[in-house]
Each structure stands twice: as C-alpha cells, then as structure tokens.
Amino acid sequence: MQSNYYTISEYPTGTPSQDVFKLKQQDLPALADGEVRIRNRWLSVDPYMRGRMSGVTTYIEPFELEAPLEGAAVGEVIESGDDRFKVGDKVSHMGGWRDVAQLPADGVTALPDLDVPEQAYLGVLGMPGMTAWTGLNAIAEMQQGDNVLVSAASGAVGSLAVQLAKAKGGVVVGLAGSQKKRDWLESQGVIAVDYRDKDAATLSEDLAKACPDGFDVYYENVGGVCLEAALNNLRVGARIAVCGMISRYNDEGPAPGPANLAMILIRRARMQGFIVFEHWDNYPAFLKDVGPKVAAGEIDYQETVREGLEATPEAFLDLFKGANTGKMLVRLG
Amino acid sequence: MQSNYYTISEYPTGTPSQDVFKLKQQDLPALADGEVRIRNRWLSVDPYMRGRMSGVTTYIEPFELEAPLEGAAVGEVIESGDDRFKVGDKVSHMGGWRDVAQLPADGVTALPDLDVPEQAYLGVLGMPGMTAWTGLNAIAEMQQGDNVLVSAASGAVGSLAVQLAKAKGGVVVGLAGSQKKRDWLESQGVIAVDYRDKDAATLSEDLAKACPDGFDVYYENVGGVCLEAALNNLRVGARIAVCGMISRYNDEGPAPGPANLAMILIRRARMQGFIVFEHWDNYPAFLKDVGPKVAAGEIDYQETVREGLEATPEAFLDLFKGANTGKMLVRLG
C-alpha cells in the first residue's frame, strides 16, 4: 500500500515558503507485529511545528529531513498487528502530514467514548485544549474571580482559555486581530481588544480601559507588543503562563524584548514557560473536566477546515497570518 | 535637642547628582508618650532607595519632599517614652539619613541577643541578608546541589546569596565588575565572571564556560546584559528570583529588554519578582537559620564603611558605581 506524505529537504530560515514542503510517496512495508496501519481522516497543523523545522533542538527534537513530517492526526485502523486494536477502531496518534500512517501501536490511542466529533481530539479535547487548561490551572494557578488576559484569544488554544477563564467569574479580555474574531469573543462575554498595528503604549492604554483593575493572569501566546502591554497592566502577584510567542517563531534574528520587564519586580509577578507535552500525566484529569462540557455543547469551539492532503502546507503557513479562527484542521477524503 | 538630617527638594531624573541631597537641621519637639529618641550609630544606604526618590509609587511609597529621608539604621536609645525601651538599649529602625531620630516605639526593634557587631543588623542579618535568603529559598526554591548564578555577587545581598548557595553543594558562579571583588568571590569557592564592557553574546559564552551544565537558579540583581546572558544558560525548570535590576534604576527612558525572553519557554523556566518587605514574617526563621552562622564566623560578610553623616549622599550614589564590596554603611561619630 502506498502512503503520500509531506517532508522537508532543508530547514527554512525566516518565514517558510510553500515550496519548502515536498509531497512524496512511499510503498509501505508489510505490517510488523505490534504495528497498526491507519487511514487518516483529520490532520492537525500547529504553530509549535515551526520550532521543529530548524536544525536546533529547542524544547523538542527537530523534524528529520526527508522523513515524513509528524503531527497529531485522527483516523481509522485499516490493518492491525496488535491485540489492542482492530480494523475500524477510531484512533489518535502523531503520524500526521500523510494519508496513511503505519506506526507502533504503543504510540496510538483509541478515542475516548464521548459524544463529540472525532476531530475534537485534535482541538478542544486534544493538545490545544489541554494546553489552555494546563496554562490556566497548573501554571497560572487561576483562582475564582481572577481577571484574565489572553493573547491570540480566538486561536485553538486561546478560544478555550477565554471560555475556561470566563467560567471562573472575573473580567476576561482577549486580544485578537480581526473584527470577525473580536465578534466571536464578544459573543462569549469576553472583552475583545484589537492589537494590530498598535505600539505597546497604545495597547497598554486600551488594556487599561478594558480592565481598569488590572490582570491577575496573563495567558501568553504571542510575545512582542502584547507582552509589553500586558506587563503594564498586571496586578500585584500576577501570574503569566508562557505558552508560546508566535510573533517570534519566524524571526531570523533576535528582536529586543519588552522594555518594561522590571514590572515583574514592581508587581511581584511570576512568569513561567511550559510545554504541554511535559504535563500529559494530567490528560485524564483534563478530559474528565472538559470532556463532558464539550459533549454537552457548553464549549463553543471553532474550527477552520481545509480540504485534502495537498492543502496541509498552506494551512500550516496560514497559522502565522492569523487566518484561522479556532483550530486549523485538514480533512482527508 | 537638634537633629541633622538629609532631605530632597525635588525628585531627580536619571542619575542623581550629589546636590539633590540637602543637609538640614530641626529642633526636636519634646518626646511624646510612646516615642523613643535614638542616637544613630550606623546608617544604611541601599539601591532600593532610588525607587523612593521619584514621584511615582512603584512597589513602595515615594519619599516625602523636604521631610527627612528614611532608611534602616542602628543606634542607642537616649530617651524613652515607652515601657519597652530604656536608655542605653541598642535598637534598629527606619529613621536613617539623620543623626538623631525620634520615632514611635512601634517602629523600633531591640537588637537580638547574638554575639555579632551591631551593624550586622543592617547587612548580613538585616534587610540585605534577609533578601538573599528569601530570594534563594522562598522564591527560587533552591535545592541541594543546584547550580546557582548570582549577579552583583559581591554586593550586600549577592555576597550572602553566594555563600548560602555554596553551602548547598552545587556550582556557584558570581558576576562582579572588579578584580578585587572577583578575588573575594574566588576565596569563597565561587567561580567569578567579569561582566563589565561585555555584550550579551560574550557574557553568555563566559557563563557557559564557567558552568557548562547550566544554572538551576539565577539570583537577579542587575538586569541588562546579565539577565540576557543568564537566560541563555538556564537548565530546564530553572527559577529566576528577581530581586532588583540596578542597571536600570537611573534610566531616564525605557531600554529594550532581553532579546531572548523566549528562553523562558524553551527552558520551561520561572521568573518571579519579590519585595523582601512582604516576606518579613519569615524574619525570625531567617535569623534562626543565619544568625548562629554569623555569630560563629562561618559567614564572611564584607562592609564598606564611610565616616560621618555628611558622607551619606556619596555613599548612596557610589552604590550605582559598584564602589562597595558587601554592605555600604555610614558610621556616625
């Protein structure tokens, strides 16, 4: 059987162009004991993947050149060499960026028994949802009534973060760059603030108007002016969960950091970076907390869906243009 | 009785010049019930005082213009209107920058009964020592064997921080700007690194050579290139205690922050600001831990002593030139 997959031949610098991604084919070898073969239905593209497209190990290993790229995917078992899986099982795994994946069964997970669409396990109940939940709870230790600021607030992670924060009762402000995204935020009871083309001073003032008492928690997905403006609007004892700094992922050289980092001292604030993969032990607790809310329709999760394997590179690159509302997904036929 | 004191008539911008400080005299009113009158023997000057010389409330109230400046001091009670104190008692209090202080007894503390010189309560057993201990233990949660980096490592706070860190067994590196300071650090088993006139890249390399495995804890007193170089040399899960950013205290405008703040994410590090005055409940625990070590001569604390009340402004300003080794003190005749 043939598998069609995307790979890269070299590590791009700066913003990758689409021709970095090469579509290739391979004939899969016969299934070995302990392996399963999966026809993928949904592929995930996520900003963190940019970090794997460099020759440098940051917090995760680089992608191997010429090998199939990796990423979260959901599909159906079409052949099984392992007792734990049978043909027809719905599963999630990391063999994305391809139509047919052949993997050791140890890296494959059966989808939980919840009444939700299968692609939810790539978004609201997958890595992005788990990232939002971990950042707010384990890292920022959000308390009932806390005022919370979220950057990239309509993205896959941010859109769940604002809803989980809102459920705890404080003022929730979301930063988003388009009117459509801000409309969605306002529909959730979130105060939406535009950050596009603003300097840090202007954005600081806008945040102060949106939440005059300041923020107890800042959920940081962006960096740059968003971070600088947030630092100017912290309450004493604030916690910043640093989940990503997407504004910097394609930078070719270092850019200056916030000029007001001393606010960490002045506000006795705490800023902490985290990688969700290191908190995966908490996934069952997350699923127990958030899964029933999703099944009951209490969480409004957005998806931006692209069609067909060949749409994957553009879907990925569009993440850095803010083209997605909610989770960016690729659906395979 | 007359009191001679220093005051300021306006809030300076940038690096203050010496003529900002005005020496004035007042005739003290008769002692009221509940007050004590103290002849000061030792005055403390500390970098945090710069923050009080601006019209802006940061984490502490500004000094009142034309009123006596405040700061830690040690002296002897010469008249008492409160049962808790009698003439001849040795006390510490916040009525510094003057020769005779008249204060409510509630703000006056009898010196503990330890066999140490009285000025130790302004340094190794006072606010600076408590700051070092709090930053390492309560904020950075230093563990046995941790590798620790300390900036301003021969200062009043840093010189105790390196010794407390060294006692826990890991590699300890101290940043200091003069050969004399580095010699003292090396005499304590601390690896001394010069930071003067280096850019962040060069200093990063020097730190990597000094401690190839990276740092679990960074005790931050300085900001600027020291912070940027430290961020490049963190271990996964590192903790940064932000005690001060002395390199910025005299800045007239904002300066760019570190270009590599994303290391917080890459190393899953935590950076936390603190103000020692908010942790003063722990002072008895600090005194119990560190006091006997000082009395036994196990802590090598340095002092830079200036003579006479009129030396106070220059002593304060010299803190920002790095002219002190250990605690900067003014002795009154």
From TrEMBL, chains A, B:
Keyword Oxidoreductase applies: yes
Keywords: Oxidoreductase
PANTHER family (alphabetical): PROSTAGLANDIN REDUCTASE (PTHR43205), PROSTAGLANDIN REDUCTASE 1 (PTHR43205:SF7)
Source superkingdom: Bacteria
Name recorded for this polypeptide: NADP-dependent oxidoreductase
Pfam family, one: ADH_N_2
Residue stretches in coiled coil: none
Enoyl reductase (ER) domain: residues covered: 14-330
Species in which this protein is naturally found: Halomonas litopenaei
